[in-house]
Amino acid sequence: MQSRSTIGFSQPRHRGGGSMATSYHMVHYRRFSAQAGGLPLAKLDTLCRNALSQVDASGTALWQRAQDRVYALTAPDGRQVVLNRVADLASAVFGEMCLIQDGGFQALLELRASQVQLSNLTVAEIFSLNERSAPQGAQFVRGMIYWLAIGSHLFFVKTQSMTAEHLKDYLGWLLANWTCPERVESVSLSMQLRPRSGTGF
To answer: How many CA atoms, within 13 angstroms, populate the side-chain half-sphere of residue 2?
Structure first.
């Protein structure tokens, strides 16, 4: 069974009566493990720090190279996962992932009302519904995941089209390509909470 819980937090907007609106999101949990050469590797937060601290030829760490944190999904629809905001919190590593897609359109409701003849019997006031492409140099966000790695424990909140599988695939790609000196060969995300005696997180 999947280990999970819900949390509520106040959004930065007010209802008519002045009370703060609250929304609830499911917090998902996975236990991380990875192997290289058939041997278990370090905890997830340690591996993430290691990967993101790798430098390129100019000496710039991956923390500071957003373009190199873009992962192309295998599906032939131009979708990519971007690790956008990412921060070392000392006791954990936080990440914000965006699912983006080349091209495509987004429906927009323009809140300018107009009178329209909808049938021989009906004239109604409506808003205009149109599809727009993303501006040059931008892409539509199709889903997001916010995650927190504490030791080998991974907590995340996902929205829209993002899935736990996207998160697993991205972490596998990140750690396999950027972790040194041990290249990660396999990544597992288990739904079970299995504390090991004496090891803590």
So the answer is: 13
Q: What is the largest CA-CA distance in the chain?
A: 77
In the numeric block, which tokens belong to residue 117?
């003849």
- The rounded distance, in Å, linking the Cα atoms of 42 and 12 is 38
Q: What is the DSSP string of 120-151?
A: SS-EEEEEEEEEEEPPTT--EEEEEEEEEEET
| Of the candidates 157, 144, 145, the residue with the CA atom closest to the CA atom of residue 29 | 157
Structure token pair of residue 4: 């999970």
DSSP at 69: G
pLDDT at 171: 92
**Cβ of 53: how many Cβ atoms within 10 Å?**
14
pTM above 0.70, yes or no: yes
Measure the CA angle with vertex 45, ends 43 and 49; round to 5°. Answer: 120
- Per-10-residue mean pLDDT of the chain, 201 residues long, equals 42 54 81 81 90 94 95 81 95 94 80 89 88 82 94 92 91 83 71 55 45
In this structure, the number of other CB atoms found within 10 A of the CB of residue 110 comes to 11
End-to-end Cα spacing for the chain: 21
